[in-house]
Design a protein that fits this description.
With 362 residues, this protein is α+β, with helices and mostly antiparallel strands. The chain has seven helices and 18 strands.
């Protein structure tokens, strides 16, 4: 073999022409097969995850039995309702020193409030001093609340004492100077055959004899307030306690999450915030209308919480949540869709409620 012939034989192979019937079609077929395998695998994975979830949705019972609620369209947040940033300019007092303060009462220059860890504290001259605790600690999570207590409504009485509503324990009178605690009405005492599971707010007459207070539910406790709202339970009540005769009367019932309560300056009627329904009811306790009730304001731009008198003769009303319009209000959306609520709450309560949430986050 000559050198020329050897070089010819060692020349690089020419590129092969690939046709539809050749190797390219096999590669294409292999890629298509791999894609099908991937899609089938993904579909099987999705089905394997969805079936148990659907099964759980069908088989698990929901802890709530919500009924459809009817709301009017929320008022437009325009004019006097237009959002502003005024509260961002407020001065923060006792920042990082209090855990979830709720209601506030004044006696002289001292302020008093209840906290999420079950205490009644005095705030004066920059100092925080514990003056009472109705339960036993520690209170690290919401599950600890029934034992450690959760003071909510608090008012100053005519004799320099405090009247306090504890969500789990009942009504108390506290002497902040002697640190004496007196039980007025225990939550263990059934009122007209129903227990008080969620004592909330209170208001008192100037002479300190009558206490008007709300029990938000005989079914749900404060730690389950979200279930109370979502179910729309109508077992809340407005009650009257006479500090002299020790008698308790039910003034209003079938309320949906009665919350803040406020006696009028003339002491002729009591206002009650019905949180779930975004309205405030009025009950007449004296005068020609005594024993009657009517609507004070309805279709509010938010879900009302506490009510307190203002210096102008009106009332301050705090909102737990706003009903955005224009915008989207989740509670309004869910109100006529109880089946969605049921599905949501079929998730174990320990997960949904974030049971382990520390009190410090409230």
């Amino acid at each position: 073999m000559s050198e020329v012939d050897g070089l010819r034989q060692r020349r690089p192979l020419r590129p092969q022409v690939v046709t539809d019937d050749g190797p390219a079609s096999e590669a294409e077929g292999g890629g298509t097969f791999s894609g099908r395998v991937f899609r089938v695998t993904l579909l099987m994975l999705a089905v394997s995850l969805a079936l148990p979830l659907l099964g759980a949705m069908v088989l698990l019972e929901s802890p709530i039995d919500p009924q459809p609620l009817s709301f009017k369209e929320p008022p437009f947040l325009l004019g006097v309702l237009h959002p502003n940033t005024k509260l961002q300019q407020a001065k923060r007092l006792y920042e990082n020193q209090l855990i979830g303060p709720e209601s506030i009462a004044h006696i002289g220059d001292a302020m008093f409030t209840g906290t999420a860890d079950g205490r009644i504290v005095k705030l004066e001259n920059g100092e925080v001093e514990t003056i009472a605790q109705f339960g036993t600690g520690p209170c690290r999570t919401r599950d600890d609340e029934p034992a450690c207590g959760r003071p909510l409504g608090i008012r100053a009485g005519p004799n320099g004492t405090l009247f306090v509503a504890d969500a789990y324990k009942g009504l108390f009178e506290v002497n902040p100077w002697k640190r004496e605690v007196k039980v007025l009405l225990s939550s263990e005492t059934p009122i007209e055959g129903k227990k008080m599971s969620f004592v909330n707010d209170l208001t008192i007459t100037r002479d300190g004899r009558k206490i008007y207070f709300t029990d938000s539910s005989s079914k749900w406790q404060r730690r389950d307030y979200l279930l109370l709202i979502m179910e729309g339970t109508d077992d809340g009540r407005l009650l009257e306690y006479d500090t002299v005769t020790k008698e308790v009367k039910v003034l209003m019932e079938q309320l949906q999450f009665p919350n803040g309560v406020q006696l009028s300056p003339a002491e002729d009627f009591v206002l009650v915030a019905e949180t779930t329904m975004a309205r405030i009811r009025r009950f007449y306790v004296s005068g020609l209308m005594k024993g009657g009730a009517d609507m004070f304001v309805e279709n509010m731009p938010g879900f009302p919480d506490n009510i307190r008198p203002s210096s102008s003769g009106g009332y301050w009303v705090s909102m737990a949540a706003i009903r955005s319009n224009p915008g989207f209000s989740m509670l309004d959306f869910l109100s006529e869709r109880p089946w969605i609520k049921k599905i949501i709450f079929k998730v174990p309560l320990s997960r949904f409620r974030l049971i382990a949430t520390p009190c410090t986050t409230e």
